[in-house]
Amino acid sequence: MDLYKTIGELYVQRDKLDLVIAALEELQRFQQSADGLAAPPLRRGRNSMSAEERRQVSERMKEYWQNRRRPSRLL
Questions:
Q1: More confident of the two residues 15 and 37
Q2: Distance of alpha carbon 31 from alpha carbon 46, whole angstroms
Q3: Which domain holds residue 34?
Q4: pLDDT digit string, tens, across residues 8-30
Q5: CA–CA separation, 2 vs 60, rounded Å?
Q6: Total domains, the chain
Q7: Do 61 and 50 meet the contact criterion of CB atoms below 8 Å apart?
Q8: 43: left (phi over 0), alpha (psi -120 to 50) or beta
Q9: How far apart are CA 11 and CA 20, in angstroms?
Q10: Could you tell me the pTM of the whole model?
Q11: Is residue 20, in this structure, part of any structural domain at all?
Q12: C-alpha to C-alpha distances, 37 to 11, 32, 45, nearest whole angstrom
């Protein structure tokens, strides 16, 4: 049994499977958009905050750090 040959064949099969999986995923995305369903979002990451949300976060953090900086002398 030639292990190098077997490993090479497995790599070829894996590459073929990767291509088939990619094609099926593309087909699925196309069918979802054709059915009127929203395609899954391609963009990932954080959502941006509105000015009001930023102001609220700023106020909470100011209060948090103000409380953290206070000397805690409990005598």
A1: 15
A2: 28
A3: 12-38
A4: 999 999 999 999 999 999 988 88
A5: 66
A6: 1
A7: no
A8: beta
A9: 14
A10: 0.41
A11: yes
A12: 36, 5, 22
